[in-house]
Specification:
By secondary structure, the chain is of the alpha/beta class. The chain is built from 24 helices and 27 strands. Strand 3, helix 5 and strand 4 form a beta-alpha-beta unit. GO terms for molecular function: hydrolase activity.
C-alpha cells in the first residue's frame, strides 16, 4: 500500500485502535481492524522449518503444530559455507509460508556463539560475525523472494539462556560493533528484512526492547532498516518506553493491559501521538506487503521439501577425521550401525523451533532401501538417561566384532541442549563415550557419526579412524549421512565454530553466565578462533576446518594493487585445483591480518569465503573484493570504523589455523583521529604522532640545545652503567609530560602548558 494511503487509513483509526495494533491479537496473529478492512496476519516459527500451531498455541511447542518439514538447523547450515544452499532453504520455507498463509517467519536466529555452552547454539550460525551475517542474509533473501517476511533474531547479545530474561550483557563499544552488532549489520543493510525481533536480555543495563540506541540510532538511522521491530515472546518491560525507543509490536497478546498504557500515555501527554502513528504505519506497511502479494497457487509439497532438506544437509556435513581413507565405505563390506541415533536420529533441537516432522529418514531407513544384508544394527544405548544398559552394550560390542567396519551414531540427547537452559559441560553422555571406546577396542575400523548442536569433547579421538559431524541435520539427515558414508556425496562442510580441546580453554570460561544478573564480556573481540589463533593455541578442530574425499591445491594468489587508500577496493584472486580423483567442493577462506596495528587486534579475521565445485584436474579462479571494512577496527575515539595506515596480510586458508598463501598490501588511512593531549600524555604517544614529534623535538631542542634523547640519555644521567639505553628508552616511552618538570632542568609549568596548547592547536 502506498505511504499516503497508509497515512489516510491511520487517520481514520481511533486512539484505542492504534494502540491495539501495537500488540498481538493472540499468540501468533496481529490485530485486525474490521471496520476499516485492516486484516490480521500470522507470524510463525521458525528458522529451519514451519512451526505453524493451531489455536491452542504455546511458545515452547508443548502443543503440536502442523505436520511440516524440518530442515537442517543453523549449526549445520552455517557449516555449509554455501550462500546458495541456504538461499534454497529460504525459498522452500517462503513457499511453505505462502501455502499456509503465514506472513512472517521468526528467524533466522543469528546470535554469536560466544561459548559452546549456550543452550540455543544449535539454532545460531557461528562464532564469526561475517559468516553469520552472510549466511543469515542468504536465508532472508530466499524467504523474502517469495513475498514473505523474516524476523532475524535476537537483536542483540542474547548469548546465554541462563537468566536470559533479566540478565544484562555488559560489553564495551568496540566489542559490540565488531562482533555482536556485526553479526546483524550486513544482513540488514543488504537484504532489508521486513521485521526484526529484539531479545529478552538487557544490554549494558537497558532492556533491548527499550534501547533507543540499538533500535533507532543504529538499526534504523545508521543501517536503513525500514520494517517494524517486535519483541521476543513476553519480552516487554515498559511498553511506553519501548514504543519511544522504536519497538513497535509486542508479542504475544497483552490482554489489553499495555494497550491501555499507550492510550493513557498519549492522553496525559507523556507519549507523542505521532510516535504511535509512526509505529502503526510501520506495522501496516508490512501487513499489506504480504497481503498484496499473496500467492494463491503456492503449494506445501512435503516430499519435495524433504528432498531439499536432504540436499542441503549433504552440503553441511563436516568430515573431521578420515585416517587411512577408511571412508567412503564399500557397499559390499559388512558394516555394523551402532547407536540409537542410527534408527531414531536426533535431528533438531528443543524449544520454540521444534518442528512436527511429517516423516524422519534415519540412516537405517536409507540403507534398508538398498535391500542389502551387509548392514547390521545394534541399539547400543538408550538416551533417556546417562547410564549404560549392559545388555545393549554387550550386543553392540559383539556386532562390531563381526563386521568389517563399525559406524557409531552418537550425539547429545535433548536433555543436554535446548532452549531455556545452558549446557553444564562439553561432554557426550558418559555411556556413549564408554561405548565408543569399547567398540574401538575390538574393531580397528571404527567410524563415529555425531548428532549434536554444538561442540563436544572427544576423549576417544585417537582410537577411532573417522569422525563425521552431521550436526542437527533435519528430518532427512539419515539419507544425507549414508550418502556421505558410502561416497555418493563428497563431504564439503566446514566448521562454523571452533571445537576446543576442553571447556577451560574457551575465551569466556571464567565469566560466561555472569553473576548478579550481569554477564561481563571481558574477552572483548577475542571470540572463538580470534582468541585461539591469536594465542597460537591447540584446539580439537579449528574454525573453517573440514576434510574431503579429494584434495585441493591453491596457487597464483594475485592482488590487483600493492598499495591502496582506504577508500579503494582491493581485488583478490586465487586459483584452486582439484588434485584428487573425484569431484568435490572446496571452501576458499580469505582472512586479513593487520601487521602493524597499535591496537590489540586478532591475528586474523575472516573477510571473505566462497564455495566452488571442481572436477578432478579442474582449476577455477576465485575472486574477492575487499573494501574499507576488511581492514578496519571500530574506534571508540571517533565512534566509527577506522583503518590504520600500514601493512596488511591477505591470507588464503583452509581453516583459521591453516594458512596456505599470503601477500602483503600497504593501506593508507584517509581518516585522521584527532589527538587531544594533556599533562598526562606520554612521550611515546606524542612522538608516535608526526605532528606531535615535530613540535616536541623543536620545544625540547630549544630547552636542552638538542633533542630530548640527548639530554636524557643513559650516558648523560649515569656513568656507572646502572641505567641501560633500553631502560631509558622504555621509561621515556611511558613518561607523562608532567615528569619533565622533575627530570629536565629549567622547564617550568607555564612552558609545558604552552607546549600542550601547541600540540592541540
Amino acid at each position: 500500500m502506498e505511504k499516503q494511503k497508509l497515512k489516510e487509513l491511520i487517520a481514520q483509526m481511533t486512539l484505542e485502535e492504534k494502540a491495539g495494533l501495537c500488540s498481538g491479537a493472540d499468540f501468533w496473529h496481529t490485530k485486525a481492524v474490521e471496520r476499516l478492512g485492516i486484516p490480521a496476519v500470522m507470524v510463525s516459527d521458525g528458522p529451519h522449518g514451519l512451526r505453524k500451531q493451531n489455536e491452542a498455541a504455546d511458545h515452547l511447542g508443548v502443543n503440536d503444530s502442523i505436520r511440516a518439514v524440518c530442515f537442517p538447523a543453523g549449526c549445520a547450515t552455517a557449516s555449509s559455507f554455501s550462500r546458495e544452499a541456504v538461499e534454497l532453504l529460504g525459498e522452500a520455507i517462503g513457499e511453505e509460508c505462502q501455502a499456509e498463509g503465514v506472513s512472517t517467519v521468526l528467524g533466522p536466529a543469528m546470535n554469536i556463539k560466544r561459548s559452546p555452552l549456550c543452550g540455543r547454539n544449535f539454532e545460531y550460525y557461528s562464532e564469526d560475525p561475517f559468516l553469520s551475517t552472510e549466511i543469515a542474509g542468504a536465508l532472508v533473501h530466499g524467504v523474502q523472494s517469495k513475498h514473505v517476511g523474516t524476523s532475524p533474531k535476537h537483536f542483540m547479545a542474547n548469548n546465554q539462556e541462563y537468566h536470559r530474561m533479566t540478565s544484562s550483557s555488559e560489553m564495551d563499544e568496540r566489542t559490540m560493533r565488531e562482533i555482536y552488532l556485526a553479526s546483524f549489520e550486513g544482513m540488514v543493510k543488504k537484504e532489508k528484512p521486513w521485521t526484526i525481533m529484539n531479545s529478552y536480555n538487557k544490554l549494558n543495563g537497558t532492556y533491548l526492547c527499550e534501547n533507543k540506541e540499538m533500535l533507532t540510532d543504529i538499526l534504523r538511522d545508521e543501517w536503513g532498516f525500514d520494517g517494524y521491530v517486535m519483541t521476543d515472546w513476553g519480552a516487554m518491560n515498559d511498553r511506553v518506553a519501548a514504543l519511544k525507543a522504536g519497538c513497535e509490536l509486542e508479542m504475544p497478546a497483552s490482554s489489553g493491559i499495555t494497550d491501555a498504557e499507550i492510550v493513557a500515555a498519549v492522553q496525559d501527554g507523556t507519549l507523542d501521538e505521532d510516535i504511535l502513528d509512526q509505529a502503526c504505519e510501520r506495522i501496516l506497511n508490512i501487513v499489506y506487503r504480504f497481503e498484496e502479494n499473496r500467492d494463491k497457487e503456492a503449494v506445501f509439497d512435503l516430499e519435495k521439501d524433504h528432498e531439499t532438506a536432504r540436499k542441503i544437509e549433504e552440503e553441511c556435513i563436516v568430515l573431521l577425521k578420515n585416517e587411512g581413507s577408511i571412508l567412503p565405505l564399500k557397499k559390499e563390506a559388512k558394516a555394523a550401525f551402532i547407536g540409537k541415533y542410527a534408527e531414531a536420529p536426533r535431528y533438531q533441537g528443543g524449544g520454540s523451533s521444534h518442528i512436527n516432522s511429517f516423516k524422519v529418514e534415519s540412516a537405517l531407513d536409507a540403507v534398508r532401501a538398498w535391500k542389502t544384508e551387509n548392514v547390521s544394527y545394534a541399539k547400543g544405548f538408550d538416551d533417556t538417561k546417562d547410564e549404560t544398559d549392559e545388555a545393549l552394550f554387550k550386543e553392540a560390542v559383539e556386532a562390531a566384532k563381526n563386521a568389517d567396519t563399525a559406524v557409531i551414531f552418537a550425539g547429545l540427547p535433548d536433555s543436554f541442549e535446548s532452549e531455556g537452559y545452558d549446557r553444564k559441560h562439553m561432554g557426550l553422555p558418559g555411556c556413549q563415550n564408554r561405548l565408543i571406546e569399547a567398540v574401538a577396542e575390538v574393531q580397528p575400523n571404527t567410524v563415529v557419526v555425531l548428532h549434536n548442536g554444538s561442540p563436544v569433547e572427544m576423549p576417544w579421538i585417537g582410537q577411532v579412524k573417522a569422525v563425521v559431524e552431521a550436526y542437527l541435520g533435519g528430518q532427512a539427515v539419515g539419507g544425507a549421512v549414508v550418502n556421505v558414508l558410502y561416497g555418493n556425496v563428497n563431504p564439503s562442510g566446514r566448521l562454523a565454530e571452533t571445537f576446543p580441546l576442553r571447556l577451560e580453554d574457551t575465551p569466556c570460561y571464567l565469566t560466561y553466565g555472569g553473576e548478579h544478573d550481569k554477564s561481563v564480556y571481558s574477552e572483548g573481540v577475542f571470540v572463538g578462533y580470534r582468541y585461539y589463533a591469536s594465542k597460537d593455541m591447540k584446539v580439537l578442530f579449528p574454525f573453517g576446518y573440514g576434510l574431503s574425499y579429494t584434495t585441493f591445491e591453491y596457487s597464483n594468489l594475485v592482488l590487483d594493487q600493492k598499495e591502496i587508500k582506504e577508500s579503494t577496493a582491493l581485488k583478490v584472486s586465487v586459483d584452486v585445483t582439484n588434485t584428487g580423483t573425484c569431484a568435490g567442493k572446496e571452501v576458499v577462506q580469505l582472512y586479513v591480518s593487520a601487521k602493524e596495528s597499535a591496537m590489540k587486534r586478532p591475528v586474523r579475521e575472516l573477510r571473505g569465503f566462497d564455495k566452488v565445485e571442481l572436477n578432478p584436474g579442474e582449476t577455477k579462479t576465485v575472486t574477492f573484493t575487499l573494501d574499507k571494512r576488511a581492514f578496519a577496527y571500530w574506534s571508540v575515539e571517533i565512534h566509527d570504523w577506522h583503518v590504520e595506515s600500514g601493512a596488511y596480510e591477505i591470507q588464503i586458508g583452509k581453516s583459521a589455523q591453516e594458512i596456505v598463501l599470503t601477500k602483503l598490501v600497504q593501506v593508507e588511512s584517509e581518516t585522521v583521529i584527532p589527538k587531544v593531549y594533556s599533562i598526562n600524555s606520554t612521550m611515546g604517544e606524542i612522538l608516535a604522532d608526526p605532528k606531535g614529534k615535530a613540535i616536541m623535538e623543536q620545544a625540547m631542542g630549544s630547552i636542552t640545545g638538542g633533542g630530548p634523547a640527548q639530554e636524557m640519555s643513559a650516558e648523560a644521567q649515569d656513568g656507572s652503567g646502572a641505567i641501560s639505553n633500553e631502560m631509558m628508552a622504555a621509561m621515556m616511552e611511558g613518561m607523562p609530560l608532567r615528569q619533565i618538570l622533575s627530570f629536565v632542568p629549567g622547564v617550568k609549568k607555564e612552558m609545558l602548558e604552552q607546549l600542550i596548547q601547541a600540540l592541540n592547536s
